[in-house]
Amino acid sequence: MESPVITLPVGxxxxxxxxxxxxxxxxPYAAPPVGERRFVAPQPVEPWQSERDCIVPGPNxxxxxxxxxxxxxxxxxxxxxxxxxxxxxxxxxxxxxxxDPLPVMVFIHGGGFxxxxxxxxxxxxxxxxxxxxISIAINYRMGIDGFLPIxxxxxxxxxxxxxxxxxxxxxxxxxxxxxxxxxTVFGESAGAMSIANLxxxxxxxxxxxxxxxxxxxxxxxxxxxVARRLADKLARLLGVSADKAGFASVPPGExxxxxxxxxxxxxxxxxxxxxxGLEPVFGISRFVPVHGDDVLPQRPLDALKxxxxxxxxxxxxxxxxxxxxxxxPTGVRDKVGKLLSWxxxxxxxxxxxxxxxxxxxGTGKKPGQALTDAMNDLVFRWPARRFAEEHRGRTHFYEFDxxxxxxxxxxxxxxxxxxxxxxxxxATATGEQGLCGTNPPxxxxxxxxxxxxxxxxxxxxxxxxxxxxxxxxxxLSADETISEPVMPAAAFLP
Length: 494
Hints:
By secondary structure, this protein is α/β, with parallel strands linked by helices.
């Protein structure tokens, strides 16, 4: 079977075909971010002469993927670091023989801004290509190189990479049969947080028509001055000066990965709370985008209030039991008592006792369950609804409510659980250590995947728009739309 070849302004790329789907794996959208390009904004790709084979994943950003007890999470974030310089690349899947310009979907992976890859098995875009969509997944810089505000270095380099990838898509996707006026960005966790930020960013204006934000929102950004404390801490760990020259003296690799892991540990003492006493990431990751630069001049919610992103249609949602991924496999939920639950929460937000009482502490509910319920809403569910409230454009909201049977049924509708359904890729997350257990419902995956395809095609969904008064939320598994009450977390968050 002939290999498909597409000629781009910088050179020709060769992919693979199985007769139904054509795949182009590892197309560069920016120059390798190494050497003098390491701590600068993404630079143009240097042209090449002969056909470039785009058939293997290639390298990704330096990282280390840790195992979860009894659970295969590599399906969500990939297998870890594949070494190499040329990792600002993307994968593209398209149906063979497409005639009309097709809708385009661009996926941004999650992983706490420190791990993840375009090549994680769950996000293979073949199923979207099968159903008439040009599907794309991207890599970007992470950790120190992507999301550490180093003096003398442009901030938010990881977001700048994502913007560069979207510019590449706008300028090149027509060559693959895609419609550059019909682009939907979608992502999960840190990828969804990124998309929420891009909606608010003046630098990303006009690069996409629709956005799907899965378990993300715009509240996980820091003031640059607060985030500089992280730069100072990492500089001390590495024994270098807290500036461009200092960090450039340590090449990306095991040393920087170990420093990132060290600073991300819950036991590492570093105060990243803002002036109000809130640490908006609740310790899940130290690395997040910053506001106060040209990428995010304002906090994203403030930008939305001013009308930023009003031209973008938004589908945003959360999973019903997000924090179960972090607190159930580790046993934390069932082990912590009242005092430790309070201590965990008070490091990130004032009025920790009042919050725990609002979520059932002292009423017979186990302390760890009260902590988990509170963090579900504080970290993910309520900030996502606040994003929906402030977005001035067309907005729909979903809740993913199917409960995984893993860990005796206690894993539930945890963080990341919707992805195998969105991609119609249950096989990647099925098994004795699979996220979805041994027999997840294919019917639900078929239905959710079709909703995403339809939304990317024409922007329609079979439930009403969200507004702050009726609070319409569609529960995906139950297939019902409810008018949702305000959560207890609303009293404790901006």
